[in-house]
Amino acid sequence: MEADPARPAWGLSICQETGLGSGTVYPILERLVSEGWATRTEETEEHPGRPKRFFYELTAEGHRAAQQAKQTRPRFFAARGLLEGGLA
User: Fold this and answer.
1) How confident is the model at residue 88 (pLDDT cuts 50, 70, 90)?
2) Measured between alpha carbons, how far is 38 from 62 in angstroms, rounded to an integer?
3) Residue range 76-85: average pLDDT?
């Protein structure tokens, strides 16, 4: 979610980038939002033929938590290619 601020992340895009299923990704996103680590914004543009997207963005607190996680578990993030950029 912090990889490219110009390209907002939505649930399906995160599923595709991580290779994780929606049953894993969406509960994580909901928890991040409920903990105040991410915000969720509903798409406002027209979207014929598909449901509205909800865009997710890390808050300042979420960025701090992500950086702390990267420092305390670097092997976990390196194995997933998430140390430089990525979704965490």
Assistant:
1) very low
2) 6
3) 60
